[in-house]
Structure formats: C-alpha cells, structure tokens
Design goal:
- The protein is of the alpha+beta class.
- The chain folds into 3 domains: about 280 residues, 4-Layer Sandwich (Metallo-beta-lactamase, Chain A), CATH 3.60.15; about 90 residues, Alkyl sulfatase, dimerisation domain (Serine Threonine Protein Phosphatase 5, Tetratricopeptide repeat), CATH 1.25.40.880; about 100 residues, SCP2 sterol-binding domain (Nonspecific Lipid-transfer Protein, Chain A), CATH 3.30.1050.10.
- The chain contains 22 helices and 23 strands.
- Helix 12 packs across helix 14.
C-alpha cells in the first residue's frame, strides 16, 4: 500500500524532463536529408543576414577561461560534457540542419567564465542557463545557480580558479523555473542560510510557483518535455544539437532548493546586498508567473532574467504550462526600456550572452517589446476577423518590418506558429468555433475512417510517398498520422511517417520543433523510451499538504470510487494544519482548516512522514504499523481510499495510439 507524489520527481521546468529519459540502446539510424530538404536549407542562406558576425564576437567577448570537458556527479557519472557538441565546430551547416539553427547552436556552444563588466562575471555553457556572479564588497552575489548542484559547483570552481576567493553571501533567484535555482546547494550551505550568513532573494510567489506549476499535470509535462528537449536523441547533425535557450540540461544531476529568505513584493525595490545596490523590477506573468529583472547602478548593468533572451521565447511551451501574457510581457519590456535603457552600458540575461552599449540595449528591448506586442495584437486582429488558430498560424509567417531580419527575434525556442495559437488559446480557448470540431473523433477512430475512405493502407502509403517525392512533408505527415493511428503495427506506415517527420525536423529553425520532430521519428522506429528518476527531496519537502491533497484528487480513479462515499479528517500535527476530506460521487474534495462533525476516519501524521512516503522511503502500511500514522475510526476506509489511487508513468505513447 504505497502512494507517492509522482510529479514531484520533475518539479516544474521544461528541462527537468530531459534528465529522466533513456533512449533505446540500438536505435534505428536516422536517415540523410533529402535533396528537397537540402535545397530548402540552402535557400535559408539567402534569406537572412549571415554575413553579420557581431553576435559571434559578443558571445565570446570577455572570455576569461574556456571550459572544455566533463562534470561528474558523486557516483562518477558524467552529467555534463561539452565535447559531445564538438561537431558544431565546422563552419558550414550540414544538409540536415537549418543554417539559422546551426548558427545559434554554435553560439550556444561557447562555454567558460566571462567578464561582463568590471566586477561582474558569468559562467555560460555549463548548463542550460547562465550563472551570474557579482563581486560585492562583502562577498559574492550569485544570480541563478543553474539546474544541478554539480554544474553549479563546477561553475563556481571555475570562477575561483581565476578570481579572488570571496565567500558567497547572497543568492538571487530571478524566477521560478528549475534551471535557475536547482543547483543552489552547489554554491551555498543551507546551514549558512539558516544562520543568516547567506541571504536568498526571490520574486513574490516564488515558492508557490516553483513547486506547483507542474504538479497536477506533471507526468504529462515530463513526457512531453522529453520531446521538447530532445534528450533521448543522439547528439549530432542528424540528432539533437541545441535546445534553443542552450545546449540542454545536466543528465543525472542533483536538483536542490533552499527557500528564499527575502521576497521582493513591490513593483520596484532597492536593496543593498554585499555592498552592492540592487534595484529589483517585478515582472509577474511574463516568461514565468514569478519573475523579476534587476538593475545594478554601480555597474550600469541591466539584468533581464529570461525576459529578453537572444531569440523569440514561448508564449506557451510545447511541454505544456499556463499560457503567458504576451501583452504584459511587452509592457514590462517597455518599462525596462524607459527606466533603464539609456543608463545601461551592458545588459546581461540568464540565457545567451550580453549586449553592450545603451543604444544597442535600447534597440533590443524595443524590438522584443514590439515582437511580443505584435504576436498578441495581430492574433487578436485576425481572430476578430473569424480566423481559426491554424489559419492564423498560416497567415502570420513573419514578423513585421525589420524585426524579421533581427537574429534576436528568430524562433529558436518559441515560434510564430506556436505563439499565435497560444494567444488564441489565452483569449478564446482551444475550440476554433466550428461546430464540426465540437465532438471530433479520436485519432484512432478518425484514422480508420480516413484510411478506408482513401482506399486502404497501401493507397495511403502510396500517397505519402508521392507527397514526400514532391517535398510536401507536411501533407505526408498528416496522411501518415491517420495511417499509424489506424494501423499502429503497420511497420511500413511507421517508417514512412518517421521519414516524413525527420525531414521536417531537419528544416526547422526552432530547436524545440526539430527535437520534437526527430524524437517522434525515433519513437516510430524504435518505440517509446523508458523513463527513470527519483523524487527531488528539497522540492518534495517544500510542497504543502494542500498540494499533496490536490494531487491525490487527480490520482483518484473516479470509476473505482463510485459507491464508496466517505469523510476523512486529515491532520498534520507538526504544522497544526487540518483538512476535512469528502469523497462523494467519485470526487475527492477538501476544506482547509476545517473538520467534519463525525468523520468516518481521522488521520494524524506529520509532514515529515508524508515527505518520506513521497520520497518512497516509507509506505503508508509501514507508517501505520509503526505508529507514524495514527488512525481513529474505520481504518478500512482509509485503506480503501489508497486502493482507489491510480499511478502515472511518463512513457505513454504520443506518435502512436
């Protein structure tokens, strides 16, 4: 009898999912780019300003020491290896890679310690995100200690090899995504935080969003994130070469979290941290629900967190999340432009590389402001003319004016196609207004009907082959999807669909789209990979009992629960928190700080015991037997409730039924 908060394995970020998947040991090899794909990629060279090389210089500017090699975990396993991307050193993009994405992948491959300004440094290329280090009078201030403790420790070690060994006296979490706080125990000791020697600053709502954003849909996000990051793909010119925001995440690294000591709650707040004046600008609802920029007057440096990285970001991530507010994002960028643009000599971000010069900074902020405003307003303009999400995505092919020719507005991570549909979803939902789509057939049902209507499987395969010969891979993929869902064991269909998806991946400018196409192709040929991992102790302990009960309600199998109505009082003695649970009509609800007059069973335990259960160090039966959980009333009701819970495993099929 055991239950566990499965999704807290992952805790909340696109990147968590990528560390958990294992690819088949002997996968079918990827195929070469078709002539049509090679020609399409070659044409990109004439569409964008590849002769402009200033960003190559910017990405390398201020290099103090390069990092080349590996980072190991405590077991001696490699969690980060820069050499796996050595293939990117060749100048010309191969036929299997969009040249624009190849360019971005090369820029993201720079790894090492960089001086941003006098007393301001970054370690880049040791993780998906950057770690920024401020040299204060009283010690170091670290902004965003990366995804894993191992890479964070390696980053700080690299810094200490070339700079004075001052103690870390403060950490700043710029926002609530895991790749910006997961490595904190690699740079500070929690005992020093509790003793007041180290302060940790974070935006308002940080802990709630850092834990809860993916809790209820976490297993699905875990699986979808494997596609987005391409973690199961081999590294190479026919596989994964980038994640858009960086190379990827440490595989097998240790994730941690130490709660903030200081929350930034006002729109603008100024603090003296280690003798450095830091002005914080809250930007809720932009790239993350809890996020903030900062300005360092003595350095004339503007830190834009993840709100103005060197590419178009996601309004809705392919892995899944709440839709972000593109209009608010645009307005906060304009606020930063007005407040800091003309007095900043350098702008640094927590992905990508810095921008130097007030004019260049102001232009970039204005361009990205216009980009997000355009995505929001153009989508609304077209939806108010009656266009559907697919029609809007097809109509909005490029950004207006000069924006389309700016490298830092290209869709390496987010895309116009996906972002316009996300704005539509934010305002109108997923339904496109056509009654024909009110109650669509499932993919399996529709697939069988389409295959029959088109003349059978052999005919559909023939149509796919014709479409691919004509370079119409989008149509081939639509045909193939129907066939695979109609006949999932049809190997010819699966391999034809894989071939078509692969060519779309090779053409994609977006790293995330490339990864999703190529993972889909790989799984059609080899099957879905296994998923493994363990719960993250810091994140489980930070989850509230209410979050656990919310997930319990999601895990409840309502069919099994029919006819088993009951009431439970669940009390956490150490927190002095009580919950009144009601199972009725196959639905589990609860009231916080409440009790039933006559509950069927009362459950008494500590949060620490619940944490051990969620970490799979203990199960409910053993906890009850040894007195860690005390039951009063009809104990069989509690046992019955546990028996109604389903389990979620993040290896469900995506490209097949």
């Amino acid at each position: 009898m055991q239950t566990s908060v499965v999704v807290l394995l992952a805790a909340l970020s696109l990147v968590t999912t990528q560390a958990m998947a294992k690819a088949p040991e002997t996968p079918d090899a990827a195929k070469a780019a078709s002539l049509d794909t090679a020609n399409a990629n070659q044409a990109v060279l004439k569409q964008l300003p590849f002769a402009q090389r200033s960003e190559y210089d910017a990405a390398r500017r201020g290099l103090v020491a390069a990092f080349e090699g590996e980072v190991l975990n405590a077991q001696g396993t490699v969690v980060w290896n820069t050499h796996q991307y050595d293939f990117l050193k060749q100048d010309q993009a191969p036929d299997s890679v969009n040249p624009s994405l190849w360019r971005m992948a090369q820029l993201n491959a720079n790894a090492g310690l960089y001086q941003v300004a006098e007393g301001l440094y970054q370690v880049r290329g040791l993780d998906l995100a950057n770690m920024t280090i401020i040299e204060g009078k009283d010690g170091l201030v670290i902004i965003d200690p990366l995804f894993a403790t191992e890479t964070a420790k390696a980053a700080l070690t690299l810094y200490y090899q070339h700079r004075p060994r001052k103690p870390v006296v403060a950490v700043i979490y710029s926002h609530s995504h895991l790749d910006h706080f997961g490595g904190v125990r690699g740079v500070v000791d929690e005992a020093d935080v509790k003793a007041g020697k180290v302060r940790i600053y974070a935006p308002d709502g940080f802990m709630e969003h850092a834990i809860s954003e993916n809790v209820l849909a976490g297993t699905a996000m875990l699986r979808r994130g494997t596609y987005q990051g391409g973690s199961t793909l081999p590294r190479g010119e026919r596989g994964q070469l980038d994640a858009g925001l960086g190379k990827g995440v440490p595989v097998g690294g240790t994730i941690s979290l130490i709660a903030p000591t200081d929350l930034i709650t006002k729109p603008l707040e100024t603090h003296d941290i280690a003798g450095v004046q830091v002005e914080f600008q809250l930007t809720p609802g932009t790239e993350a629900p809890s996020e903030m920029n900062l300005y360092l007057p003595q350095f004339k440096a503007l830190g834009m967190a993840e709100n103005a990285v060197m590419m178009m970001h996601n309004i809705l991530t392919p892995r899944g999340a709440e839709v972000r507010d593109a209009k608010a994002w645009s307005r906060f960028l304009d606020d930063s432009l007005v407040r800091y643009g003309d007095k900043s000599e350098v702008m640094f971000v927590q992905h990508s590389w810095p921008t130097w010069g007030a004019s260049a900074i102001s232009t970039l902020l204005a361009d990205q402001r216009d980009m997000y405003a355009f995505i929001n307003d153009r989508t609304l303009h077209l939806l108010n003319q009656g266009l559907t999400p697919a029609e809007i995505a097809d109509a909005v092919k490029r950004l207006p004016g000069d924006l389309d020719q700016k490298w830092y507005t290209r869709g390496y991570y987010g895309t116009l196609s996906f972002n316009t549909r996300a704005v539509y979803q934010r305002y109108l939902g997923f339904y496109d207004g056509n009654p024909a789509n009110l109650d669509p057939l499932t993919p399996e049902q529709a697939g069988k009907q389409y295959v029959q209507a088109l003349g059978g499987a052999d005919k559909v395969l023939q149509l796919m082959q014709t479409a691919m010969q004509q370079g119409d891979y989008r149509w081939a993929v639509q045909l193939g999807n129907h066939l695979v869902f109609a006949e999932p064991d049809n190997q010819a269909a699966r391999h034809a669909q894989a071939d078509a998806l692969e060519q779309l991946g090779y053409r994609s400018e977006s790293a995330t789209w490339r990864n999703m196409y190529l993972v889909g192709a790989m799984e059609l040929r080899n099957g879905a990979p296994t998923q493994s991992g363990k719960a993250v102790a810091d994140l489980v302990r930070a989850a509230t009992p209410a979050m656990f009960l919310d997930l319990l309600a999601v895990r409840l199998d309502s069919d099994k629960a029919q006819g088993h109505d009951m009431t439970l009082d669940w009390n956490f003695d150490d927190l002095q928190q009580r919950f009144a649970l009601t199972l009725r009509n196959g639905v589990l609800t609860y009231r916080e700080n409440s009790s039933h007059a006559k509950p069927d069973v009362q459950v008494q335990m500590s949060k620490a015991v619940l944490d051990r259960i969620n970490l799979r160090e203990l199960d409910f039966a053993t906890a009850i037997k040894q007195g860690d959980i005390k039951l009063q009333g009809d104990a069989s009701r509690f046992t019955a409730l546990l028996g109604m819970l389903g389990s979620f495993v993040p290896n469900f099929n995506i490209v097949t039924p």
